[in-house]
Description:
Layout: H1 3-14, E1 25-31, E2 42-47, E3 53-58, E4 63-68, H2 77-114, H3 124-129, E5 138-139, E6 145-150, E7 156-162, E8 168-170, E9 181-183, E10 191-194, H4 197-207, E11 210-213, H5 220-230, E12 236-240, H6 244-249, H7 258-263, H8 267-270, E13 273-277
Parallel strand pairs: 10-11, 10-12, 12-13
Antiparallel strand pairs: 1-2, 2-3, 3-4, 5-6, 6-7, 7-8, 9-11
Amino acid sequence: MSSLLETFREILAQHDLLPEDILADGNLYRCPTRNKPYKRNGAYIAHQDRPATLWWCNWETGDQGTFHAEGERALSPVELSAWHRLQQAMRKQRDEECARRHAEAAQQAHKRLQASFPCSERHAYLSRKGIPALADMRQDRKGMLLIPVRDSSGRVQSLQYIAPDGTKRFLTGGKVQGGQFVIPGKAEKPLALCEGYATGASIHLACAWTVYVTFSAVNLPVVAAAVRKQFPDAQILICATMTKRAATRDRRPRRLHRPILLCRTLPQAAARTSTICI
């Protein structure tokens, strides 16, 4: 094996991707992962021609990236033009693969929801948090809570699993970006956005607000923009939680929380939007 292919293999292994052989012909290949060696939840595209390029994606973790053996400055105009064409071809394959995996995951999510049943009132996670199962949260036979991740049109695109001990994970290959879980409230009340279900349920129970659970700080401004577009005149509250450490050190946070900072990067989402720490 050439030193370049060995470098590619080392990079893939660092991201828990374990292909049997690395095919460096510019095409996309699925491969096993360290956690699930009998499935093909990873993908890569490798190209050895100068400039050598490797792209990878671990669908179990959502981790993806690109490695270039040489920088753009080291390329001649002809090589740079060829490199741009290569990047376009790789991007097209990546986009097609993402669309396929998202579609497969959406179908799987729909089937798993159909096979699920109402949540037990004694579920360990819900009991520990002191909250009920709201909206269309479900439970499977393994005791995992299932939270549908829906797009702005209400279509299921993925699932979030919550184990009895609080461990959380998403359906492999599912699309989370732009996804939301809505807890309906009173129509005359403000609309609230937060990251996690437990926080969202607590806000809803205390205030009777409609709450949009966004699952992550990075996804919060994406959902905020969609909600603002759908409800241009509504009052929207971004609810950022304070950690116990921050609350103990100072009742007033010394810096803005990440969800607030991210939302302020989108003027259309931040306009007429308030932020509160809870």
